[in-house]
Amino acid sequence: MTDAGRTPADLVGLCRKIEQLLERRCEVCRLLIGLSERQNVLIEHAEPIDELMVVLGRKQTLIDDLQVIEDELKPLGEIWRTNKDAAEADQRERIRGLADRAEDALKRVLELEEVARSSLVESQQRVVEALTHLDKGRQLVKAYGQPELNEARAIDHQT
User: Could you give the 3-state DSSP secondary structure of residue 47?
Assistant: First the structure.
């Protein structure tokens, strides 16, 4: 018997369940990486917002899926920590490898999100600058049409 009264068969079932969840986590992260890369291309090329919104919606669905996986893994992880020494070495290695792969994929997603955030901040700054220039241009056009300036223009043209 293992800790907490678990039989070897229980431990095998626990290992299978953890492996399945970790494989799902890897797959969801792989899909998130693809969508994050697409998101960054859309932002970089200032593509229409509609396509970006579709990508963001898909990403949100995957993030929700990832949360479900994490919620399922949490209690299993606690059981695993107290029983892993009783597991076969190859089971421990498989689970560790899957956990590492999933963690690496999640780090990549976070890196891509930081790129997207930086790109959006830069894009926002460019829009603010463009709007500021546009507003100044409007002010100049408005000022140019004022009567007191018309006299100054007429004098300029006479000279």
Answer: coil
* Selection from 37, 35, 82 nearest residue 62 by Cα: 35
Distance CA 46, CA 121 (A): 13
Domain segments of the chain as ranges: 3-119
Please spell the DSSP secondary structure of 69-111, one letter per residue: HHHHHHHHHHHHHHHGGGS-HHHHHHHHHHHHHHHHHHHHHHH
Q: Measured between alpha carbons, how far is 105 from 107 in angstroms, rounded to an integer? A: 5
- Helix 89-144 vs helix 8-44: crossing angle, to nearest 10: 20
8 within 8 A of 2, measured Cβ to Cβ: yes
Give this prediction's pTM.
Answer: 0.72
Sequence-ordered list of residues with C-beta below 8 angstroms from that of 74, at least 6 positions apart, any chain? none
pLDDT digits 0-9 by tens, 91-115? 999 999 999 999 999 999 999 999 9
Distance between CA atoms of residues 70 and 32, nearest Å = 15
Q: Do residues 60 and 113 touch, judged by C-beta distance below 8 A?
A: no
DSSP label at residue 145: T
